[in-house]
Amino acid sequence: xxxxxxxxxxxxxxxxxxxxxxxxxxxxxxxxxxxxxxxxxxxxxxxxxxxxxxxxxxxxxxxxxxxxxxxxxxxxxxxxxxxxxxxxxxxxxxxxxxxxxxxxxxxxxxxxxxxxxxxxxxxxxxxxxxxxxxxxxxxxxxxxxxxxxxxxxxxxxxxxxxxxxxxxxxxxxxxxxxxxxxxxxxxxxxxxxxxxxxxxxxxxxxxxxxxxxxxxxxxxxxxxxxxxxxxxxxxxxxxxxxxxxxxxxxxxxxxxxxxxxxxxxxxxxxxxxxxxxxxxxxxxxxxxxxxxxxxxx
Length: 297
Prior knowledge:
Layout: H1 11-23, H2 26-32, H3 37-51, E1 56-59, E2 62-65, H4 67-89, E3 97-103, H5 105-122, E4 126-132, H6 135-143, E5 149-155, E6 163-168, E7 170-175, E8 186-190, H7 196-208, E9 212-217, H8 221-229, E10 235-238, E11 246-249, E12 261-267, H9 274-288, H10 290-296
Parallel strand pairs: 3-4, 3-5, 8-9
Antiparallel strand pairs: 1-2, 5-12, 6-12, 7-10, 7-11
């Protein structure tokens, strides 16, 4: 007689499978679900044995879904969702609720879609509220427990006290179709007075003795980018915020090196639950995946 257990799927293995499907990498998926790479590999080996299917194929350091793996994704998502809904409906485990995250809009368009989609698929009963604002506002909101997490940026010369998760180069950028960078008085598109990038840019220009004017001020990354792409001004942006239609200006063109940009994660002392740790892992994985998103664009 066949063993009925052979027809049962492990929900924990399914969560790990979905994390790999989202990130394409066993190591990053392990960080997302709080498991070592060896545990992730063992789980996937057992899942493949249980199904009698090959779910992944290796592509260098990454893992791609096979045709069978792609077909299985939808089933895995539905099973995980039904599992979580059942626990939530009967109060067996408080897996439902609301989480709050804040971040500057410089990173929202590249960070949020991937992060929120991956988190929602693995945690379908959790609502995530997002606030886009500058780093100082976000930091104060986390400190006041108005937000559970905050993604903030700072200059390497003015480090914050969060969990440092990425460093990026700050660049002077201009339009590929215009020559605003050649104006005798350099027009700048910058953030508000408390913006670290603005402070670094002005300090560097003053040390170089370059004449400039602050022509466009906005807390919106889209507005700053629009001014640059239209040839109205030059801006200072981190590597991941450089968009098509922009060109990075080099020191040989008279634009001095700038301090690195730090991207850090702040966490409220009240955000100490298992689901908070899960969201933290998703945020870190998404920020670490920004270079792949840029390459795809």
